[in-house]
Amino acid sequence: MTTLGAFLALLAAAPPMLVIDEQATKRLEPPPHGAIGMSTAYRISDAVPTPRSMEFRRRILHRGAAIGLHPIGHDEVYYVLEGEGEVISDGQRAFLTKGMTAYLYKGAIVGITQRGRKPLSLIISYPNTQ
User: Fold this and answer.
1) What does each of the 130 residues of the chain score in pLDDT, given as a tens digit?
2) Of 28, 41, 46, 58, which residue is least crowded by CB atoms under 10 Å?
């Protein structure tokens, strides 16, 4: 098989792309890991058929809400779209604002709390280990 033929065979093996409107995944619910306050969850990657190798979500933590402390079995990324928050990883605290990212490492105990006047809007991404 030629290099081009091998490349085309690999392309044929991949499923087509999937475009997801976040509004179709929106739900009001308490945040995970403690149900502290309320949030708007956009479980975007849940619309992707399994198997999938990553999770991609948006969550808006309403005033006073938090994703409670929990151990993570994989690296996670929290990216702030709007608002302010305080992230904790193994006792270390950092204040996040729009445009900032927290990269959290496997094995840490992590959480994030909304701070300030505006809700905290986050993108959260991590590998799907199931």
Assistant:
1) 567 766 666 656 777 888 999 999 999 999 999 999 999 999 999 999 888 899 999 999 999 999 999 999 999 999 999 999 999 999 999 999 999 999 999 999 999 999 999 999 999 999 987 6
2) 28
One of 1.20.1330.10, 3.90.1150.10, 2.60.120.10, 1.10.10.10 is the CATH number of 21-127, namely: 2.60.120.10
**SS3 readout for the chain:** CCHHHHHHHHHHHCCCCCCCCHHHHEEEECCCCCCECCEEEECHHHHCCCCCCEEEEEEEECCCCEEEEEECCCCEEEEEEECEEEEEECCEEEEEECCCEEEECCCCEEEEEEECCCCEEEEEEEECCC
Per-residue tokens: 43:
């479980």
CA 128 to chain centroid, in Å, comes to 11
Q: Which two tokens stand for residue 46?
A: 């849940």
